[in-house]
Amino acid sequence: MSPDRLAVRKTYKLYVNGAFPRSESGRTYEVTDAKGAFLANAAWASRKDARDAVVAARGAFAKWSGATAYNRGQVLYRVAEVMEGRHAQFCEEVAAGEGLSSSRARAAVDAAIDRWVWYAGWTDKLGAVLGGANPVAGPYFDFSLPEPTGVVAVLAPQRSSLLGLVSVLAPVLAGGNTAVVVSSKARPLPAVTLGEVLATSDVPGGVVNLLTGDAAEIGPWLAEHDDVDAIDLAGAPADRAMELERLAAGSIKRVLRPAPEEPDWSADPGLTRLTPFLETKTVWHPIGL
Fold first, then answer.
1. Considering its fold, how many domains does the chain have in total?
2. β-sheet with 132-133: strand ranges across
3. SS3 label, residue 169
4. pLDDT in tens, 142-182
5. Where are the beta strands (DSSP E) in the chain?
6. What integer pLDDT is reported at residue 177 of this predicted model?
7. Which residues contact 53 (CB under 8 A, 6 or more apart)?
8. Structural domain contains residue 18
């Protein structure tokens, strides 16, 4: 930037229902890099923003869960393609927010893109791996099939602003669920940029809704919301996780508890984040003569 130009300071918005609204509260907060230098302003999501995000996720659930598994895989792969085109921007944001060297930031971004590809490949294989035909004593076929749970609230990891975020969001989508995500408070810029990627890829509006702000504030509202079917507490404050579980119990949500320590998000993810947000439907069908 030329030294005689004024900096264009950005104020990033939320990503809800395929659009970029301001927080209805009008609140924002400053985002700084790892050394404390100003980067941008981000919207501070309110309770109404969280409710609007849940409404959007519920509205998008039928279309997303009703799409073929192969089509969902294509859409997730498209997210990886668009992220690849914005590779440099993601590297810059991850390096600034997490205080990483350029090579380590590049490795984190590469791993995040690869993670989308990995989960895209799983969408049409879940039925074969997690379902099957059950032996029964009688003239019936009996099949067990995995189905999505519904609307999943995700408290994204606080330290790993992109790779951790993708590692908790992609499996939710791969299983056919829709998501309301609360990003890392201190490092929200990769999440905001991911929202721009989702908006310009083939992900239908409402399938992913990204809220920036404080997970300690927004988490309880999502945990007690009756129209949220499950919640991932990966980025929940350590001293609030038990409280969030108790709030979630009021509406009998599925809860994925946080690990005692933030995991190594670059490790092979396996199916451990896919299966918690899948239901098993068993179907009986008479054998025709």
1. 1
2. 132-133, 140-148, 278-286
3. helix
4. 889 999 999 999 999 999 999 999 999 999 999 999 999 99
5. 11-12, 28-32, 38-43, 132-133, 140-148, 151-155, 178-182, 208-211, 230-232, 254-256, 278-286
6. 98
7. 14, 16, 17, 45, 180, 209, 211
8. no
Sequence length of the chain is 289
Residue type, 288: G
Residue 157 covered by a domain? yes
What CATH number is given to the structural domain containing 205? 3.40.605.10
φ and ψ of 282, to 5 deg: -110, 130
* CA atoms of 116 and 163, how far apart (whole Å): 10
Q: Is residue 6 part of a domain?
A: no
Which residues of the chain fall short of a pLDDT of 50? none
User: Can you give the pLDDT at residue 287?
Assistant: 86
- Which three-class secondary structure state does DSSP give residue 82? helix
Give the predicted TM-score (pTM) of the model: 0.93
Cα(90)–Cα(70) distance, rounded to whole angstroms? 28
- Separation between Cα atoms, residue 158 and residue 165, nearest integer Å: 9
Closest among 128, 131, 130, 136 to 287, alpha carbons compared: 136
CB within 8 Å of 49: residues ≥ 6 apart: 14, 16, 21, 23, 24, 25, 43, 211
Helices 102-122, 69-85: inter-axial angle, 10-degree rounding: 160
Q: Is 155 helix (H, G, I), strand (E, B) or coil?
A: strand
Asked whether 96 and 34 are in contact (CB, 8 A), the reply is yes
Enclosing domain of residue 197:
28-286
138 part of a folded domain: yes
Question: Looking at this protein, which amino acid is placed at residue 109?
Answer: V
